[in-house]
Amino acid sequence: MSDDVKRHVQEVFSKNKQAYVDSSTHKKQSDLDAIIEWLEPSPSDKALDIATGGGHVAKALSLHCGTVFATDLTKDMLQNTARHLTSQQNIEYVVADAEQLPFLDGSFDLVTCRIAPHHFPSPHQFIKEVARVLKDNGRFLMIDNVAPEDDALDEFYNRFEKKRDYSHVRALKISEWKKLFRNNHLNVKKHLTRKKAMPFPDWVRRTLDNEEDQKAVEELFQQAPAEAKSHFEINEENDHVQSFAIDEYMVVVEKHSS
C-alpha cells in the first residue's frame, strides 16, 4: 500500500514540479520569516528540510545555517528546485524518503518539514525518523494542514483533499500529532493554529488538469453540510466556489531522549 502511495506522490509532484516553485501558498514570505524567527538558526547549525518541494524553506534556512540538506522523494522535483537555487552554495540535494532518511543518528541541529506530512503513508515512521536524525536538544519545526478534531469535519476535509489530489494520504488531527511527539521524546516548545485562506481555482488546478475532475471537487464543496461550509469558510459567488479556508498547525518540538 505505502509503495503505491509513494509512487502516486512522485507522479503528482513530477508533473507539477514548477507549480510548487511558483505556488503563492508555498513561497509565502511571512511563513518563511516565522520559521527563521522560531528556530533562530546559526552558522554552526546543520539543517535538514524534508520533502523540500520547491525549496522555499531550504533557501530561507541556507541564509542562516552552515549547511542545509534538502531532501525529496521526487527526483524531478528536486532537480528542478536545484536549478532554481543555484546561487545557494550551501544546500545539498538528496533524493530521500521521509520515512527512511539516509542519515546517521543525531546528524542535525534543526529539521523542518512544511506542507508535506499529509502525503506520508506512515506519520508514525516519519516522526520516529525525525527524532532519530536530530541531535539531543535539536529542534524540529513542522507546518502542515490539519484535520479538525470533530470526526465528521475530519472525514469531509480528508475526502475533498483526496479527491483533488490522489497523492494525499491523510491530514492528522493536532491531538494525533501531539501523541506522536510525546511517544518520540519530542517536547512541544511553541505552537499555533490558524486558518489558511485558499483561492479555490488556483488550488484545484494545481493538481487536476481535467475540467470534469475540477467540477467534481467544486460540487463536493457546494453540497457540503452547513457545518462544513461554516468551518471551512466556503465562499461562493455566481455559482462558483471562490475560496475556502483550512486549518494549519505550526509547531516546534525539542528532542530530549533522556
Please give the domain count: 1
- Uncertain regions: pLDDT < 50 for 5+ in a row? none
Return the string of H and E elements.
Answer: HHHEHEHEEHEHHEHHHEE
Which second-level CATH architecture applies? 3-Layer(aba) Sandwich
Shape: globular
CATH topology: Rossmann fold
Radius of gyration: 18 Å
Overall pLDDT level: 91
Number of strands: 8
Biggest sheet statistics: 8 strands, mixed
The helix/strand class is: alpha/beta
What do we call the CATH homologous superfamily?
Answer: Vaccinia Virus protein VP39
CATH class type: Alpha Beta
Measured by DSSP, the beta-strand proportion falls in 25-35%
The end-to-end span amounts to 35 Å
Helix run count: 11
Helix content: 40-55%
Can you tell me about this structure?
It holds the Pfam family Methyltransf_11. With 258 residues, this protein is of the alpha/beta class. The protein has a single domain, classed as 3-Layer(aba) Sandwich (Rossmann fold). Helix content is 41%, strand content 27%. The chain contains eleven helices and eight strands. It has helices spanning 2-15, 17-22, 29-39, 56-62, 75-84, 123-133, 151-164, 174-183, 200-205, 211-222, 226-231, and strands spanning 46-50, 67-72, 91-95, 108-114, 134-146, 186-199, 235-237, 240-255. Strands 1, 2, 3, 4, 5, 6, 7 and 8 form an eight-stranded mixed sheet that branches. The model has no long low-confidence stretch (mean pLDDT 91).
Note the main attributes of this structure:
single chain, about 260 residues, Rossmann fold, eight-stranded mixed sheet, 8 strands
